[in-house]
Specification:
The structure is a homodimer.
Chain A: H1 21-28, E1 32-36, E2 39-42, H2 44-63, E3 67-68, E4 74-76, H3 77-83, H4 85-88, E5 95-97, E6 103-106, H5 111-121, E7 130-139, E8 154-164, H6 167-188, E9 192-196, E10 206-213, E11 219-224, E12 230-232, E13 255-258, H7 265-272, E14 280-286, E15 297-303, H8 310-317, E16 324-325, H9 328-335, E17 351-354, E18 363-366, E19 372-377, E20 387-389, E21 407-422, H10 424-429, E22 432-434, E23 440-442, E24 444-451, H11 452-462, E25 464-465, E26 468-469, E27 480-484, H12 492-506, E28 511-514, H13 520-530, E29 534-538, H14 540-544, E30 547-552, E31 559-562, H15 566-582
Parallel strand pairs in A: 3-7, 15-17, 17-20, 27-28, 27-29
Antiparallel strand pairs in A: 1-2, 4-6, 5-6, 7-8, 8-24, 9-10, 10-21, 11-12, 11-21, 13-19, 14-15, 14-16, 18-19, 21-24, 22-23, 25-26, 29-30, 30-31
């Protein structure tokens, strides 16, 4: 492709609303352009990368017996009411009414649609198992879209659904998809981790996430330094490394003391001399899926050095979504004090206690009176709890839950997720089959997603430098960027570029030729920004010596080669790079 | 692909809501399944055909320098207000509000989005020309969806947009797309016509439609029997073949007479003995784009044998959409009579007269009094007109407007449409560029659509028989359907089928193997229904003689060939068929 024949516009300025490197670089490179918050147009280069990634996904799924279909993006309310998710999905589900007053939503996910599709055709155990997938534009009404495609409203997703006779079959299907996803991300050639994950409001009880590692990742991953244990912090069990030794002190008399303006754990620790991990803080949540209808306030106690894990609370209470923190006003109404001066003593609401607090005696808590705390407080004597358990966030340095080693922390971008669903949807929607024994049984299901557009941006987030993108070969829009320095037609550099272009095309190596009338500096800057894996510089000066320059984007270590051998050198470099990528050596 | 590994379910029954053959066959063959009115899931076979057609379209566009991008399906209200189409598009534009109260619509077309995309990047004449296209799911809130994908709400479309410096450039772009579309439909291998068309509310003043011919087509096409003139009846000028000889009678005195229960032209002609083409009928329309706000009633006079062409009225009045007929109540209020007894004499609203009435004298019209007519009525003397012109539908037998031959009528399914837009959108949206002379100029545009999913169904509508679909090779889901009659693994028929499958795959010929445990009759019926171009029957009985059977779907003329030569015979047949298809011999 010639630059002059395509639609390529690069920007020098950093776009005002772009916060992370991949977003900045994709906009500057003309890969994406914002239409509205969370909705972007994909330019020609971006679309090439997206399609290459889609193709990798298709190949790995087809290879494993999955069947591609395409379902509608607009979905009728009725099927979402069958599963109860019309309400449960909340405001993220974009609803609409047509001219006849019928209600629909934009497809955020397709469990309902695919179950409806399947229940109309499947009758017997002979019709099972199978796995249906699609690659499709999805829509979620994100409350605060940002980071380009990373947290967009409209995005491209591959979603797959498995259908089996029984849970054994469903487990085989789940493992099949695990292998498919692993192969997809290995072929992509980027650093990724597979972690245990929460099932969200999709349902089911087994799920794993695939994360591309990147500093700007929204998720925290905890990975054992000595085994293959890995989990999203949301679900990672928290096990103290240095167990706080039970103090075994005799309970002393509880006592109120003034703590003027000491509202944070840090300030309190400084003022009292008690370390944060021996102070106890009290957090307030609404243990309800609809706080407007039913506030249901609860208090959670944990060590001052720990953080509450709302997903653990969600699972403890069996909610659809993680509970929300109470507002300061709500806390004031319940406790009589502002957050920072609150504690468990005298509370009329249920109190949960993180197991880390269990070993503490004679501890300090808020007095439920502004600027006062209580000391020598003891659980059981001074307040009662409804549950003691693991309610805190695990963190780097905790013990690995499999008993092997300690946890290390990474940031990741979630790009894939696999779920074992069981019969949650099939039971609610009457998707049954007649077993070999003549029994009517609900179909066992699994669902599996890959964020296609998100993955492509995540690759950029992991692979870039200050000058621009560094595409992996696997999904680079073009493999080679020819910087043609003297592009006048009929002249030697243009002819050499054409020859190299034609030879490479025969070998399925794709080139972008920068044939603009621009200075070399402009061309090099744009080549760095756009990020094709290999730059080939062809100019009159070099050709005086019969030479062209090869510049790998990642290392920027230029080598001069004979123009006549350029194609061989390029092919060799690409072959070497491809192997390195597959081995994950970058 | 093996039947047993895919997701294929055929139906014996005709679906209740399917009215035309292609809809019935696509549902019976499991190609599509309805989710809601106007929204269908594409099964695996349908998706293969759709993708093959998309690929043909992409290749022909890429070859001609078009650039593929992908724009959002959800579009903000603001840009549609810039062009005035937020209101003008009417209720077919599906609108929605997000959680923050912002208004959006689902993309029915993308002129606004692409113009917004382009105006952010294009600065100078050096950035022009170019052509951007996308393949995307679109949504229109059809008031009465029917015929499967033919008049659906959600559908797949390829839309392209050209951007040029001036109208000469835009004409070159238009012709380029004309050639691309012609090549696309030629490669498809079906019978089609290119006709002059109306621009609808897209704007611009030059447009042509591409129609696949089929009896169930919603459009009437008029084609000269002696030249290449062809037009959609909507825009075809109407020229009488046998000119009605002016009677040159002396105007007589107007006279009222009773016509009890004579409300139709047929009844009136029978009762009076005056032929329908010498009677004059009066039709009432609302010459307004918003009849609720502003009724603006007008009367149209034409011969009893003619029909009003609302598109000609639309263009006469400069409306966005064809005007609606008045209701009986509205007519009664204006004329004092019910339709069937109305006429121009004494009307207070503007009267338009079709040129066919011009030559009539002393004619009969309704008296604006139920069950009475007037005779000896003469235009000019008894009523005044505001316009005389071509307001009727042209019809078979009329003269071709290019002066060559007479018109013949066809039914067609509109599958492609090309428009020259001029600067309608660029002016309204300030999409300008700086010319070589330093002048700020609006970009010249064109837009070009192909209904992808609609085309695939239209191929079926044109190519089927009572037993099922007859796919053209170009987009058949598979080229060959192997009916494996004795599918037990390890037995000879299964082995022969596998060999043939493998050999054909090497030559890029795609096979579907029916490996189910079903009787031959069931397999043959399903093969006919699914419609792959060539059926190959492999069974133990035939193999006893070393033979397999080849059955072309279109002719059903079976030939037996040696199993050892089967692959050669199949390749030869496909090659022959491909040539026949390209020549349009079917």
């Amino acid at each position: 492709m010639r630059w002059s024949k395509s639609y390529l516009f690069t920007l020098k300025e950093t776009p005002a609303d772009a916060e992370i490197p991949s977003h900045i670089l994709l906009v500057r490179g003309g890969y994406i352009r914002k239409l509205a918050a969370g909705m972007s147009t994909y330019g020609p280069l971006m679309l090439r990368s997206i399609k290459k990634f889609e193709q990798i996904v298709r190949e790995e799924l087809d290879k494993r017996g999955c069947t591609e279909i395409l379902m509608p993006m607009v979905q009728p309310k009725e099927i979402w009411e069958e599963t109860g998710r019309w309400k449960e999905m909340g405001e993220g589900l974009q609803k609409l009414k047509n001219r006849n007053g019928h209600e629909f939503c934009l497809g955020a996910t397709h469990e309902e649609v695919v179950t409806d599709f399947v229940r109309k055709d499947v009758k017997s155990y002979r019709d099972l198992p199978f796995n249906l997938y699609q690659v499709q534009t999805k829509f979620r009404d994100e409350i605060r879209p940002r980071f380009g495609l990373m947290r967009g409203r409209e995005f491209i997703m591959k979603d797959a659904y498995s259908f089996d006779r029984d849970s054994d079959g469903a487990q085989v299907a789940y493992k099949n998809m695990y292998e498919a996803y692993k192969a997809v991300f290995e072929r992509l050639g980027v650093k990724f981790r597979i972690v245990q994950a929460d099932s969200g409001n999709i349902g089911g009880n087994q799920s794993q996430e695939f994360h591309i590692l990147a500093d700007a990742g929204e998720d925290q991953l905890l990975v054992s330094d000595s085994s293959d244990f890995a989990a999203n912090v949301e679900v990672c069990p928290a096990i103290d490394a240095g167990q706080v030794t039970p103090k075994n002190e005799t309970p002393k008399a509880m006592e109120e003391f003034a703590t003027p303006k000491l509202r944070t754990i840090e300030d309190l620790a400084k003022a009292t001399g008690v370390p944060a991990n021996q102070l106890v803080k009290t957090m307030f949540f609404s243990a309800s899926d609809d706080a407007k209808l039913n506030l249901n306030p609860v208090a959670v106690l944990l060590r001052g050095s720990d953080e509450v894990n709302p997903v653990k609370l969600k699972n403890h209470f069996g909610l659809s979504n993680p509970p929300m923190l109470l507002t300061d006003d709500e806390v004031l109404k319940i406790t009589g004090a502002h957050p920072g001066s609150c504690g468990p003593v005298g509370l009329k609401i249920p109190i949960l206690m993180d197991q880390g607090v269990k070993h503490l005696t004679n501890f300090i808590v808020g007095a439920n009176k502004d600027d006062f705390h209580l000391k020598n407080v003891n659980a059981g004597r001074d307040f009662q709890t409804v549950a003691v358990g693991d309610f805190r966030m695990a963190k780097e340095g905790d013990l690995s839950p499999d008993g092997k080693g300690k946890l290390k922390s990474y940031r990741g971008i979630e790009v894939g997720h696999i779920f074992y669903l069981g019969t949650k949807y099939s039971r609610k929607m009457n998707a049954n089959y007649l077993s070999a024994e003549g029994e009517l049984k609900p179909i066992e299901m699994g669902c599996y997603g890959i964020g296609i557009s998100r993955t492509v941006q995540a690759c950029v987030e992991q692979n870039h430098d200050k000058d621009g993108i560094i595409w992996p070969l696997s999904i680079a829009p073009y493999h080679v960027h020819i910087a043609l320095l003297d592009p006048e037609e009929g002249k030697l550099p243009a002819e050499v570029a054409d020859q190299i272009y034609t030879e490479l095309k025969k070998r399925n190596i794709e080139c972008l030729i920068d044939d603009r009338n621009e200075r070399p500096g402009v061309k090099f800057k744009d080549a760095d920004l756009l990020g094709m894996p290999l730059r080939v510089v062809i100019g009159a000066k070099g050709l005086d010596n019969g030479e062209v320059e090869l510049v790998p984007r990642r290392t920027k270590q230029m080598v001069k080669v004979k123009a006549l051998d350029a194609v061989e050198h390029i092919l060799a470099w690409i072959e070497k790079e491809r192997l390195a990528e597959m081995k994950g050596s970058h």
